[in-house]
UniProtKB/TrEMBL annotation:
Annotated ranges, domain Heparinase II/III-like C-terminal: 190-360
A GO molecular-function descriptor: lyase activity
Protein name: Heparinase II/III-like C-terminal domain-containing protein
Domain of life: Bacteria
Cross-referenced InterPro entries: Hepar_II_III_C (IPR012480)
Length: 489
């Protein structure tokens, strides 16, 4: 029982996230969930207390992660560092990772886009907790509102059909109404270095996830620090390529398999086979209007002198109101900066094949759905002074899932210290905006002004130059100003 308690202490954070992904921990959950039920039936306690009572807060938060990581319209379940984007494999207790409309379960920035894997062990460990929420997630992903497999996996590798017969909460179960939930729109786990935030709870939500944290020796890891995923208005737009456990530079576990920056074709040191890399969140702030997070992936590039950099900093600003837009800013500098050498820097994005890419001008691109039933269109605009070149490649994951074959966009420029400043916004909302950027080299910052008839946003992004003198020295400032209109007499 001491090993079981160690799992609760060391493998589940206070915020309810597991150190490993849903799929890997699902293997533990299938067994642990049954063991906890046996202990309660046989009155087996540890120091006079049932373990599921002692760690009930962690388990309750664990349930919620599933809803956060299930992508809008379902089908996908995010699964931390081992995503299958298939709820069956990991369905064992996360609400924040299940997105409205079910079918998808996000998997901590490393997905297979198949909820079966992530739902493995879900009902055994949390089927008796928060029945309305547990049932909602199950129905959303693989039940009547989702894939309608009810846990059946044709390969039998991650079947949870038997779990459903035994542990799905029996009726009557109160209906969980997403639009009336009192859950926060964000969930941040500082221990893992992971943020999941949305503009509201809806099937049309825009959702951002961001990852940059410490590597725990021995677990499966990805070279993905500062990588992000973006679900825009319910549409998977910037996705994760999938998971792998090998050290190949072109595998889904490598930097090439994530939304990162490469230098001369190389990213962070390879992961897999008990190799891993570390990063850290250096700033996180939010308000009623925005969420802002900054990750430092310097250590990931520098490990064992793999791809030396002076720093590798990414800012991400998610503005939620009155409509969503996302800004990323990369301040990355190769260690040969002092030599004045130019390097090839590439800004990588993985996108589904159902989006076409049209070049509007040198640094402005249209991402438009090619599906007849969906005419959504998004604009990706870079504010770099350098002209960016775009190369589109197919990226193929070895696993069979919805987005195994997708497109990899490689935006490149040759520079000494480029500052990739990118904005993602729907084309419709961009029509009424005026945007300008100003690079202030003397004051080491870039200012981005976004103006509408009703409001204006001012983003000030400071360049990173090593350790800062004070924790009060912010690397960013965000200001929203409402326009005051004169009343007609």
């Amino acid at each position: 029982m001491s090993r079981v308690e160690d799992f609760f202490i060391d493998s589940i954070t206070d915020q309810g996230m597991t150190r490993e992904g849903l799929w890997y921990c699902g293997f533990v959950s299938k067994i642990l969930g049954i063991l906890l039920r046996i202990c309660r039936r046989k009155n087996i306690k540890v120091n006079g207390e049932f373990l599921d009572d002692k760690y009930s807060e962690k388990l309750d938060r664990l349930v919620e992660w599933y809803l956060y990581e299930s992508f809008p319209r379902g089908k996908y379940l995010n699964n931390w560092n081992d995503s299958y984007w298939n709820p069956h494999n990991g369905l064992w207790g996360f609400q924040y990772e299940s997105f409205p409309r079910g079918k998808y379960l996000n998997n901590w920035n490393d997905s297979y886009w198949n909820p079966h894997n992530g739902l493995w062990g879900y009902l055994t460990i949390v089927g008796n907790r928060n029945p309305s929420l547990v049932t909602y997630i199950w129905e959303l992903l693989i039940g009547s509102k989702g894939l309608k497999t009810y846990g059946r996996d044709p390969s039998l590798n991650f079947s949870s059909l038997f779990d459903a017969y035994l542990f799905l909460p029996p009726p009557p179960v109160g209906e969980f109404k997403l639009e009336k939930t009192n859950l926060s729109i964000r969930r941040f786990c500082s221990d893992i270095g992971y943020l999941n935030v949305r503009n509201y709870w809806s099937s049309e939500a825009t959702i951002v996830s961001f990852n940059c944290g410490k590597y725990i020796e021995g677990i499966h890891d990805q070279s993905d620090h500062n990588s992000f995923a973006l679900i825009f208005a319910g549409q998977p737009l910037v996705i994760d390529s999938g998971a792998a456990n090998n050290t190949d530079e072109n595998s889904p576990s490598s930097s090439l398999g994530h939304n990162l920056v490469l230098i001369d074709g190389k990213g962070q040191r390879f992961s897999g086979r008990r190799n891993g890399v570390s990063g850290k969140i250096i700033e996180y702030d939010y308000s009623e209007v925005f969420d802002y997070i900054i990750g430092d992936a310097t250590e990931s590039y520098n490990l064992q002198n793999y791809n030396p950099v002076n720093f590798a900093i990414r800012h991400l600003c998610f503005v939620r109101k009155p409509f969503p837009y996302v800004v990323t800013f990369d301040d990355i500098e190769a260690s040969s900066f002092s030599d004045g050498k130019y390097h090839l820097y590439e800004y990588l994005l993985h996108i589904p094949k159902n989006f076409s890419v049209e070049k509007i001008n040198s640094n402005k691109f249209r991402l438009k759905s090619v599906e007849s039933a969906n005419n959504c269109s998004f604009i990706l605009q870079f504010f770099n002074q350098e002209k960016l070149e775009l190369k589109i490649e197919q990226f193929q994951s070895k696993h069979n899932h919805s987005f195994a074959n997708h497109n990899l966009l490689r935006f490149s420029t040759k520079a000494i210290n480029p500052h990739f400043l990118a904005m993602f916004i729907s084309e419709k909302n961009l029509e009424n905006l005026f945007i300008k950027s100003n690079k202030d080299v003397d004051n080491r910052k870039i200012v981005l002004d976004i103006l509408s008839p009703e409001w204006s946003d001012n983003l000030e992004l400071k360049f990173y130059r090593g350790k800062r003198g004070s924790l009060k020295d912010k690397l960013f400032k965000f200001q929203r100003n409402e326009m005051i209109r004169e009343k007609k007499l």
